[in-house]
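Need tokens for this chain, all 626 residues.
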Amino acid sequence: MEPLKHECGMVMIRLLKPASYYYKKYGDFQYGLGRLYLIMEKQKNRGQEGAGIACVKLKANPGEDYMFRDRALGSDAIAEIFDKIHAETAQYTSENIRHNSWFTKKFPFIGDLYLGHLLYSAGGTKTISDVHPMLRRNNWRAKNLALCGNFTITNNDEVFNEIVSKGQHPRECASSYFMLEQMGHRLDREVERVFHIAEEKGLEGLGITQYIEEHTDIANVMRTSAPIWDGGYVVGGITGSGESFVIRDPWGIRTAFWYADDEVIAVASERPALQTAMNVTSDKVYELQPGQSLVINKKGKFKLEQIIEKKANLSCSFERVYFSRGNDISIYRERKELGRQLVGPVLRAVDYDIDNTVFSFIPNTAEVASFGLIQGFEDYLNKQKMKEIKALGPNPKDADLEKILARRVRNEKVAWKDIKLRTFIAEGVSRNALAAHVYDITYGVVKRGVDNLVVIDDSIVRGTTLREQIMSILDRLGPKRIIIVSSSPQVRYPDYYGIDMSSMEQFIAFKAAMALLEERGMWYLATDVYYKCREQLNKPVAERVNCVKEIYSSFTDQEISDKISELLTPPIVNAEVKIVFQTLDGLHNACPDHPGDWYFSGNYPTPGGILLVNKAFIEYYEKYNK
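Here are the structure tokens for all 626 residues:
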């Protein structure tokens, strides 16, 4: 219930017509800029710590700038950037624009090629240098590179060493900076390769420049850069001469979608953003495949190239459960099915007493899963009604039929989240007491001491909000039993591919497992796992295994769930509390095409993930076992 910070979001747009075309058809010289703004706003869920855009003008003359960038920090970063641009152009009326061809030259961000980025800083830092696009400048247009993406690389040391081995001297130690310098170096080499070919053809001066810009193969840059990356990524780039690309990791961990017609080519992290901005149906928007790149040349011709061989499909299931917006039709269906998969466990938790059970959801991102849960219970109840009606015999009384047919699944809006309260009191106890009132409840919908209250959430990671804000406020309704239902399985392992879930010790499932080890006198197992994790650090990549799995294998899922229930129940709560989690089988039944489940299973898709989870346990053990 505590909000997880998302991965970043990215956008790339290539306009295929001159600005006058869009003005004539849409009445807007800023058509491309408008699409960029709309797609970024529709993906704001993916990053609210900052935003940035870059633009390239393909017809700039020597002496004129051709590559522009603007970035801002904060949750209003998108508005700040575009308000600034709008303020510069707003003084000109449509009549002024129509009769002045210089309009598109005068303003920096009325161009042909755009990048957009929405920042969530997985490392926790929030400086303007963290905001993409990253920019590498050069006096040769073809050697200028703007880069942005949704990625976290797990083998930074390896990439760093590769850069240094080429003679470079990195000034920062961040994966985005490494990637920029690495790809920038390969872009330099690609331009030089084409330069030598042009010389051999006898070209000189601007003839060489033109030849380079028309024959640079940006796919070569990716082929010589991307294979070393270990992690989940979608990376987009544009050059000063007009080449552009987006590449996706070979496991399909992170997401990218594209759309193309005779006016525009657009790429985004989420499909519905493209559908809304371009007003197209889902079948017109295509998923970029794992290891694949969409490459666009200076002339606007695009092609799909397999840069890295596709690995086993390990598309991130948490995108489906929580991170992506739920208005993607396939995600919407999957989230409903996640709810439906929980009917059996919830029935057992309420002792099959549907008549005395109230259903609700919290937070709003769990609403779609609640639809599936309710529909599943309605199907179950209808079967019970059929049995009861058949048992009445051939001539049932109307009153008996009415009694049976009147039974309903009691679905109510129980919890309401108010606007954020200002917790102006500094002292801890008073501050926490105020924070607990961020949520309010609908009084009177629960029969005190009689009803079960079932509340579905999309995931329970740390459990902080649940314990400090939700449990006590729900208990005020006086239910006999509170059942918190998670549409995702227990989150047991950190993520190292771009989501704010890297601290193992914060996970309530991990806390529960370690508490059980202590209670049962099994701490020796933690020590054993610690030494096994240390041994893993020196093993070859192919032999690495996730030793932390042994911590969880000592207990059943139910034992861990029961312990989580205990840890998350405040002493002031009077109701019996149960927490029901989705099973791994239920997750895969609901999301069959997205089997990446390392958060829940510990089955990391890359060697870097395995290495880092073992390191995380080593750090935990050494911190708490001094």
